[in-house]
Amino acid sequence: QVQLVDSGGGLVQAGGSLRLSCAASGRTSSMYSLGWFRQPPGKDREFVAAVWWSSGSTSYADSVKGRFTISRDNAKNTVYLQMNSLKREDTAVYYCAARRTSGEYNYWGQGTQVTVSS
Question: Would you state the pLDDT for residue 29?
């Protein structure tokens, strides 16, 4: 089992920045990748970014490329999502997720609200 606690959300003006954190505990040595997903109001959950735990390789949704950066600190079992140049459409509940294989993400954090105002 892997437990995830995500944090760092808040209210920010458009053009501003926030950094989300996801602290993992439990069987973290077996993690394959960690990702960030988000669910905007009234919409389905969508992929934002992912980092492969052993290699550090990253992947991003087109909508956040060049603005968001995902990183990991293996020693702290923590993943970060640095969000710059925030837009109103980035408003959502952001969830950290983990998986132990290349399949579906099956461990989820509780979510943290990000609200971008104009």
Answer: 83
